[in-house]
Amino acid sequence: MASLLTAKNLFFVLVFSLIGLTYWIVTVERDPSNDTAALEEELMLINARDPARVFDPNGTPGDMGLPVILPEELSPEVSALVRKGWNEQGLNQFVSDMIPLRRRLPDVRDGWCRSEEQARRDRNIGPGTLPPSAIVIVFYNEAWSVLLRTVHSVIDRTPTELIDEIVLVDDCSTMSHLKDQLSSYIASLDKVRLVRSSERMGLIRARLFGAKSTTSNIITFLDAHCEVIEGWLEALIAHVASDETMIAIPAIDWIHEDTLALNAQNSVKYFGSFDWSLNFQWRAREQRIKSASKNGTVFIHPAAPYDTPTMAGGLFTIHRTYFQRLGWYDEGMEIYGGENMELSFKAWMCGGKLQIVACSRVAHIQKRGHPYLREIVGGLALVRRNSIRLAEVWLDEYADYYYETFGGRSKRGNFGDVSARKELRRQLQCKPFRWYLEHVFPEQFDPSRAVAHGEIRFEGKTQYPLCLDWPTQLALVGCHGTGGHQLWYLTKQGEVMRDDNCLDYDGKALTMYRCHGMGGNQAWSWDPETKLLKKLFFDRCLQWDREFSLQVCDPNEPNQKWMMHNFKPNNL
Ligand SMILES: [Mn+2]
């Protein structure tokens, strides 16, 4: 398992030890007798000390989504507080706490959205005539300021007629501010209802617990660390109101996890994708916009709703009846992870649609690390188990390409009983996964069309077998036979691909680069006879001699020989 000691792994070991150490220092070494008055004084100083850095037009930090940047010099007490926030929340809670629970955000929608909204209202489609939605927000040990800013943003920036109720689901939090303090705070808020679970359910079951506790026909899910933008819910509801099988997703803007600045430049430029490890990914829309305007005779505005093959998972609007018909989530899945893919695949495969409503904008804090999983023993193994259930039920013959990412089908382990989920799929008469790939996500790399896939093994003389490995830097390390960083695909276009990244040679440097699909620096050929891996155009072959280089091709040079597996010449 030499690959365990790759640079990336070492980096993570280092980072986690540092986090552990600082946490220890903060919790153990902190003197509880420190007087809080001095601390408060310093906080006021932070606010006042450097007005150029803490941009603050109305005396309120973070107003209009502007960044709050802490001074570089902080007292040990404040530094400890800042670190504590990061450790517990995966975001800069200290900064969040400085920002009022109700802050203004700019209306970042495309101008087209406001005219669409007005046109709808002129046709008498709007608040008062559109069906209202329940808004379900699950939280677990969320920071007070982060959770309440989510709730207030919804109340302040949503027409009240569109809100059936706001259901806060406490997934058995342990932090004291989420007990009586929260109950009494929300008692004064109109339409907000708090339900609590007496045991940890996990995000997946907690969302369903909240959804099933409402009677609303339309359910909107939000994460507990969001701030909505004017017009967000109206656009979502208007889009699903007349189409029961439509799942509408807002464009997700980014609240910076360190400064809590609103960054709303890019959200509508992406659609939801996935890699063959079944991780959610974003992918640029550019090509899709181009080809739509090429084929179409009707101009489609870029701010109009657009198809997305997958969803990130936390934010969407769905008809209760449709969610129910699709079998809700797979409740055999634990905590979180994989449920977003399940809903995405089955919505498309079973006759529905998934679209991003670009006029609905919700800003979201992407936390660092996985705070939701942190206290779960074997949290990341649970995500894999969920994904295996997903693959078993929905991926057909493509399931094996997922299993190869961790060493194959024999390494699946115990994933529980999926027979009820398979029966659900049969009853709904859903289409095959291949149909989904061809019709919903044609630009996705299809591993069944790979010319070769598996490890790429060095055939020169070495003490033990070495394989091409790419976590963050290209390396040659001991072959481990369990996929991961050693799982490669040779595509029809000659790309040597791993996780959407391709082996790239520009005449000088050999690197891994995001695959661009245009050949050039990323076009290679592999000959199963000579085992040479040749860079086309430069007419050089990949050689390893304690380091990588490209040399004049020589079929008698053992250091230029590379073994690829599952060679399928018909795919050339
Ligand atoms: Mn989230």
From TrEMBL:
| Entry EC no(s) | 2.4.1.-
Pfam families per the record? Glycos_transf_2 (PF00535), Ricin_B_lectin (PF00652)
Tell me which residues make up the Ricin B lectin domain: 454-565
Cellular localization per UniProt: Golgi apparatus membrane
Instruction: Name its pathway.
Output: Protein modification; protein glycosylation
How this chain sits in the membrane, per its record, is: Single-pass type II membrane protein
Q: What is its main location?
A: Golgi
Q: Which UniProt keywords apply?
A: Disulfide bond, Glycosyltransferase, Golgi apparatus, Lectin, Manganese, Membrane, Signal-anchor, Transferase, Transmembrane, Transmembrane helix
- Span-the-membrane segments of this chain are 7-26
A GO biological process held by the record: protein O-linked glycosylation
Q: Tell me the SUPFAM superfamilies matching this sequence.
A: Nucleotide-diphospho-sugar transferases, Ricin B-like lectins
Q: Which GO molecular-function terms appear in the entry?
A: carbohydrate binding; polypeptide N-acetylgalactosaminyltransferase activity
Indicate what this protein is called per its UniProt record: Polypeptide N-acetylgalactosaminyltransferase
The organism named in the record is: Anopheles stephensi
